[in-house]
């Protein structure tokens, strides 16, 4: 943002130097990137008065002008078509350094007297381009009639430009008045906001309608008749040029001028080209409009359009149409001032590839109260500059006027958040200087932000304002003393921290995926879904949350599960490595009826590829579902959760699905990914995944460890091989072994599962590694065998097992 200091001084007084002002603004958050000094190279250039203009005797297109510059008179030869007696011009004498108007690189040259067609030209009346003020070289720059003859041009047009890099949180300051308010608060003065002296009354002079409040919070339209189109005054032209805008004509220039001054974009329509009522509506499918840059553009869906009864006439808040552009023939205009829906303007501008000064303001949100002030200010200037005559009152659609709310602000929040004591009266002074209304109620301040400060809504926002105006450089710079405090009371924080550490130690790599995924990927996941599965790993598209303004089709929906992202990771990484063991612990997004989406955390794990063998003497093997099952079982045991893992009861299609539960509550599922889905994702390996409900895990987790006595007596180890029906879960067998083996049984590990030609069809062989140990004595082999026989008898009766080596070979 370019801020001419001369314009700024019109609204706020300050005595500090330009450099000090730039530093003060920067410290307060409005970073001044550069100070540009306009006119410092204007030596030997003065304000001159054109006394007489006559035709060149030897050239049809040249003229000879006689100019008084206060220190004498000179004659010049010029081809400027707009030079006339009585004008004040920028007169460059011999030795002046000017910009070559015919150079694209803005090269400079020193002026010398020269004869042009036999007439000596002693000086030059300069154009904007020759002075470096703009790009116009069609004629000379005509100065303000009040400019004193003989004054140095530096003193008349010289200026300082503050180039301020405004961040989005300072969008309210994106105007000369906005910066003036900040300067006033920082320097202890008061900003002077323009108060238009104009009355707009009577019947509404224009017909219009607005489709819905979702398009515009406020929409104003004023008709003005008998406009005289022409160049703007020197003051307006100069200020536009200093701010980097090209003057066009007085009507367009005034709308730009008010936008720069107050921050409110305006748009003029040629009223005689508008047919019927003006409408603010959503775009029609494939609706097209030729914009003022002579480009035919198709409106993206849901674009806010301005239209009449026959045609669209503008992309609202972005760019007007060529069909209602103000031209030299315009005599009557409709002046628009509005507060459009910020997200819809942002989206339309991006899709159209158009980003204008207006759209950059609208997309950050505008204050509806500003629309009326800006309209009145523009009407006032149009009356002064163009002789405009307002026709009645403006059309003003403002269905829900903005309501401001007081914020209860305890003064101690300043100390708590900034670490310093700022006296209460100083806090009040700072807030008042920012145009906040303050009411004192004991130690509490009731603070009412101005309407243009929608960014201030909670006490912390007020502390930020107090801190930056007080001066962040005033905060003491010191190292912390004593023990650094740390919050040890957040149990869930430590559970999550320890979980991540354990998973990393187990050989899993953490991934962090986008929250947004594509409809294509969601649709592919349908094969993972089984009715009643918790947590569900797939939902139909109409049950998935779709974002309003997706950046691309690949980032269109909020993920309902972590597994789609992990499978994409597996697909991407198996092309380069043999083993992919990954996990993600993050939020998913669940649609809730009429409420904000639920955002529970999930833990998802995916395993694929090779695994390291148990012994270094064995070859590498493929990852199996038992690797994932064992990892999850050990992980949950580490968190103090003993779980059951049983085959799913979700129906006949839910093969290779294990339900993980604790105390009857399902934590999640472990399963093998369907091969058809793997082919769709270009994955050639078996992939095993799990998704667990982290919210339940952290409730059941126990990080505290009680001391468990370790027996000093030796362990007796035995193998137990049993043959059971293939339909009986191994977990049922394991449960019986533990129930009958305690307290001497201290370890029961399922080492092998076999199904094949060596055993009867419909059965499976389970090999268990058992360990027996006593607390108070050395356990004999006979005692261990006695316990083992008890286990065998229970297995025969409860799961109809046959003991290999005893009942069968």
UniProtKB/TrEMBL annotation:
The entry's protein name is Phenylalanine--tRNA ligase beta subunit
| Cellular compartments annotated | Cytoplasm
Residues that bind Mg(2+): 455, 461, 464-465
GO process terms (BP) = phenylalanyl-tRNA aminoacylation
Against CDD domains, the record matches this protein to: PheRS_beta_core (cd00769), tRNA_bind_bactPheRS (cd02796)
> In what residue span(s) does the TRNA-binding domain sit?
39-154
Q: Which positions fall inside the B5 domain?
A: 402-477
Recorded source organism is Thermobaculum terrenum (strain ATCC BAA-798 / CCMEE 7001 / YNP1)
């Amino acid at each position: 943002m370019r801020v001419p200091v001369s314009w700024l001084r019109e609204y706020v007084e300050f005595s500090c130097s330009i450099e000090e002002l730039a530093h003060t603004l920067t410290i307060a958050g409005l970073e001044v990137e550069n100070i540009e000094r306009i006119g410092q190279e204007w030596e030997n250039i003065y304000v001159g008065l054109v006394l007489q203009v006559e035709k060149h005797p030897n050239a049809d297109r040249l003229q000879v002008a006689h100019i008084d510059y206060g220190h004498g008179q000179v004659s010049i030869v010029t081809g400027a078509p707009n030079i006339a007696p009585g004008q004040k011009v920028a007169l460059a004498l011999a030795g002046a350094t000017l910009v070559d108007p015919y150079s694209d690189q803005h090269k400079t040259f020193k002026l010398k007297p020269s004869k042009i067609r036999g007439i000596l030209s002693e000086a030059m009346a300069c154009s904007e381009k020759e002075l470096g003020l703009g790009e116009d070289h069609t004629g000379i720059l005509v100065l303000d009639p009040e400019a004193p003859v003989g004054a140095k041009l530096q003193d008349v047009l010289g200026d300082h430009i503050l180039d301020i890099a405004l961040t989005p949180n300072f969008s309210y300051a994106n105007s000369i008045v906005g910066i003036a308010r900040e300067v006033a608060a920082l320097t202890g003065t008061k900003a002077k906001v323009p108060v238009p002296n104009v009355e707009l009354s009577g019947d509404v002079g224009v017909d219009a309608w607005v489709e819905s409040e979702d398009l515009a919070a406020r929409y104003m339209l004023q008709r003005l008749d008998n406009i005289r189109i022409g160049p703007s005054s020197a003051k307006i032209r100069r200020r536009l040029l200093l701010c980097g805008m090209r003057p066009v004509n007085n009507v367009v220039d005034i709308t730009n001028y008010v936008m720069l001054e107050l921050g409110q974009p305006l748009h003029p329509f040629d009223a005689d080209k508008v047919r019927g009522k003006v409408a603010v509506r959503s775009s029609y499918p494939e609706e097209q409009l030729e914009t003022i840059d002579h480009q035919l553009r198709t409106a993206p869906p849901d674009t806010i359009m301005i239209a009449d009864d026959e045609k669209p006439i503008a992309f609202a808040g972005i760019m007007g149409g060529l069909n209602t552009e103000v031209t030299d023939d315009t005599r009557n205009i409709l002046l628009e001032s509005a507060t459009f829906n910020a997200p819809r303007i942002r989206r339309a501008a991006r899709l159209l590839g158009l980003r204008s000064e207006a759209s950059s303001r609208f997309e950050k949100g505008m204050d509806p109260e500003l629309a009326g002030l800006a309209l009145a200010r523009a009407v006032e200037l149009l009356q002064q500059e163009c002789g405009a005559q307002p026709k009645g009152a403006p059309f003003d659609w403002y269905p829900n006027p903005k309501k401001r709310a007081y914020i209860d602000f305890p003064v101690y929040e300043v100390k708590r958040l900034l670490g310093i004591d700022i006296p209460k009266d100083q806090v009040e002074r700072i807030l008042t200087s920012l145009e906040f209304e303050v009411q004192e109620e004991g130690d509490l301040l009731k603070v009412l932000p101005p309407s243009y400060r929608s960014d201030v809504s909670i006490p912390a926002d007020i502390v930020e304002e107090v801190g930056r105006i007080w001066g962040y450089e005033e905060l003491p710079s010191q190292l912390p003393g004593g023990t650094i405090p740390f919050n040890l009371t957040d149990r869930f924080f430590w559970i999550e921290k320890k979980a991540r550490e354990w998973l990393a130690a187990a050989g899993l790599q953490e991934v962090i995926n986008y929250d947004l995924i594509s409809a294509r990927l969601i649709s592919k996941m349908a094969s993972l879904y089984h009715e009643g599965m918790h947590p569900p790993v797939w939902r139909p598209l109409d049950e998935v949350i779709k974002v309003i303004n997706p950046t691309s089709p690949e980032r269109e929906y909020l993920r309902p599960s972590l597994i789609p992202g992990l499978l994409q990771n597996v697909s991407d990484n198996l092309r380069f490595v043999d083993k992919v063991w990954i996990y993600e612990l993050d939020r998913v997004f669940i649609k809730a009826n009429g409420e904000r989406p639920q955002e529970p955390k999930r833990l998802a794990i995916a395993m694929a590829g090779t695994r390291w063998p148990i012994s270094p003497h064995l070859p590498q093997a493929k990852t199996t579902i038992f690797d994932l099952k064992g990892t999850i079982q050990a992980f949950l045991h580490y968190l103090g959760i003993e779980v059951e893992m049983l085959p799913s009861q979700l129906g006949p299609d839910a093969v290779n699905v294990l339900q993980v539960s604790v105390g009857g509550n399902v934590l999640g599922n472990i399963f093998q990914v369907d091969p058809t889905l793997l082919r769709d994702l270009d994955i050639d390996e078996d992939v095993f995944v799990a998704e667990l409900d982290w919210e339940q895990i952290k409730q059941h987790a126990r990080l505290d460890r009680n001391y468990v006595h370790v027996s000093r007596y030796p362990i007796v180890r035995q193998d137990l091989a049993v043959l059971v029906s293939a339909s009986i879960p191994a977990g049922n067998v394991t449960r019986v072994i533990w129930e009958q083996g305690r307290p001497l049984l201290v370890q029961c590990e399922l080492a092998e599962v076999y199904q094949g030609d060596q055993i009867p069809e419909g059965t499976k062989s389970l090999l268990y590694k058992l360990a027996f140990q006593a607390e108070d004595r050395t356990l004999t082999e006979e005692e261990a065998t006695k316990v083992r026989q008890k286990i065998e008898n229970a297995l025969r009766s409860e799961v109809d097992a046959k003991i290999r080596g005893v009942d069968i070979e």
